[in-house]
Design a protein that fits this description.
single chain, 210 residues, alpha/beta, Nucleotidyltransferase, domain 5, five-stranded mixed beta sheet, 3 helices, 63% helix
Length: 210
């Protein structure tokens, strides 16, 4: 075989190799494009799913906000209903206690306080109806108020009870002008503890004949 034949044979082999390489590159490019197309499709699908999930998350958050607002509204309504029922019960209780207080007053079994004068040793005598239940000695108005409060509590009076009290004093007795202001202050101060404590005043000297 001469050199010319060798070159021709080599050229033919090279052509075959080039053709094979061409088709290899072509098919590789096609597979790459197909793979890219698949990847692009998967990416688009994932992005669409992500968008749907984001939208669903937004809807869930809006629903949660709405549920929270509804819950707060219901809590306010429930609280208002409870307040109304408590107020209604309080009104009914207050009305019942007022009736009880008026009944005691009409029966003469209500609270009575008499200013008992003995010069500077005056005191307040406390009665439930005609029954004596205690006495408050002359002292500062604060101490006397506390002592009167203790007497009421020890004898079953409650701090929300309607108490109709009658206060009696003799304006003509010596020392009354000094004892009366302190006694009145005690009766006013007791209302800070017994909120439904009400009292009337009677000067017995006006009923005595000259």
């Amino acid at each position: 075989m001469n050199k010319r034949q060798i070159i021709l044979d080599f050229t033919s082999l090279l052509d075959v190799i080039m053709i094979i390489l061409f088709f290899f590159i072509l098919f590789a490019r096609i597979e790459t494009d197909n793979a890219k197309a698949v990847l692009d499709g998967d990416k688009a699908a994932l992005e669409e799913q992500q968008a749907q999930l984001t939208e669903q998350q937004s809807q869930i958050e809006l629903q949660q906000i709405q549920l929270q607002e509804d819950k707060e509204k219901y809590e306010v309504l429930i609280q208002e209903e409870e307040d109304y029922l408590n107020e209604l019960n309080s009104s009914e209780n207050a009305a019942a206690m007022n009736v009880a207080g008026i009944h005691e007053f009409s029966q003469g079994t209500n609270l009575k306080i008499k200013l008992n004068m003995n010069n500077d040793n005056w005191r307040l005598d406390v009665f439930s109806g005609k029954e004596p239940i205690g006495e408050v000695s002359n002292d500062s108005s604060n101490n006397m108020t506390k002592n009167l409060s203790d007497i009421l509590i020890n004898n079953g009076y409650t701090k929300d009870q309607t108490i109709l009290c009658e206060f009696f004093y003799n304006g003509n007795e010596r020392g009354t002008s000094k004892a009366y202001p302190t006694s009145e202050e005690v009766l006013k101060n007791i209302r800070f503890s017994f909120v439904n404590f009400k009292f009337s005043e009677t000067d017995t000297s006006i009923f005595k004949e000259d």
